[in-house]
Amino acid sequence: FGGEYFNGSQTFVYNDLYRYKFATGDWIQMKCGRMPPPRSSHQAFVHKNTMYVFAGEFTSPSQTQFYHYRCTWKLDLNTWVWQEVKAKTGPRARSGHRIVRHKRQAILFGGFYDSGYEVHYFNDLHTFDCDTEKWQKIGDDPTGHNVTWPAPRSAFGMVDHEDYVVLYGGYCKIASGKDDAKSIVHNDLWILNVQSMKWEKARKSGIMPSPRAAFGCTTHKRRLIVFGGVQDQEKGDDITSTFLNDMHALRLETMRWFPLHLNLGKGKSRPRRVKKTKDIGGEEGKQPAADDSDADGSLSDGSGKDESLDAEEEKDRSIVVMNEDGVAGVGHVTYYSSSEDDEWSDEEQETNEDTPNTSKATSSSEESRPEGQEKLDSQQDEAKVDSTTLDPVATVSDAQPESGDAPHGKDSGPKAGSCDEQGAYIPAPRSNCSLVVKGNTLWMFGGVVEHHDREITMDDIHCLELTTMKEWRVAQQSSKLGEAWIDSEDDASDGDDDDDEDAGSSDEDMYAE
Question: Which of 429, 416, 355 is nearest to 385 (CA)?
């Protein structure tokens, strides 16, 4: 439901509703009559046969208006009828917050509110009773000391596990002077006891992900899974954004982190760490480190390496930094390349282990929607990446978006994925992707990445079997729309201001503070 897309000239905010059919790969748009106002950065959760949506933000096409919602809506998943929940009290207007459902209640934390003059980040905690449909504030920490209560933040990860809620990462800005604000990317881990509503800060354990925000987050068999995200680093007035495509897991029973790598099979897996041991006679021997998988075989980290390996080594392997040429500057993972003329041979790659691959992209299947499992396998064969080919995002065309009013520019687009040093395909770095687990399969949809001065919105779908960690499969290629970019500063239309007024003329009570 909802979301936004920016093409360099206009912002498009949606309130459409779609269903995705896993079996066939088809998207179905649902016609629901009266809809909530268009929004992005909202949160949704499902209880029984009802989906609830709370808050979010709206930006007018010309970006002359921006406001936050504080309304709660519900959708009957049997009749597909929307209805606003008339709650007299509730959290303040916001976006960037997180909500998880725990049994018969939903739990909300954090987010931010932009008044146009200042940005305020929240660390308040609220619950929503799904039976009475009433909000209740549990508390907050106005000091933001991050000692007994998480500091204010947005764009973090939060999941429900048994009688606990686990929170990780996020982003905020704090005032550091009269007119200055300092950005903070969090790397802390918090546990909320749902019975007592008390927070506890977990100690760092294992190989933690680098600090990040706006990452994909979900759970599978007692593990939290994190994919991608973004790191913002400030230097003076300049902000450098590093988009990631690494993957990590947290054991929710021990609160221990470990990186996730693909399991490439016999003869291709990464070397296992060898531990030195002493037998009874005192002679040194060697034995491989224990695997990171459970007895039930669920979600091995696939790396074959012991978690006690140096964290810096893992960080260098995982983090991808884009330099001025749009190419990865750290590690062995290829990032976006703005050139399609370079082609490296296998011999050159072997002699340049620390140099990213900027190989020429190959064309992908013209089909953007699979019709069934056979087509999914066929698309994966076409999208499979080895050491000399990359799967590209579809090139920019003059095709108009579904709404018919978003013009396109022309430019060479970025690549949709990359390959690691073992030649395994990895989805492209991104922030704000959606993750969901169905059975033992992880599904990832969309996301956003910056390419030079462009913002690329993705609508691709990838899936990964978590019990084998064998390979990422491409269920849907990125469409051509997401690459469209207009470098004109001219107004998109003379009637844009009228559109802004129309967009903001109704439902003012929903977003007014």
Answer: 416
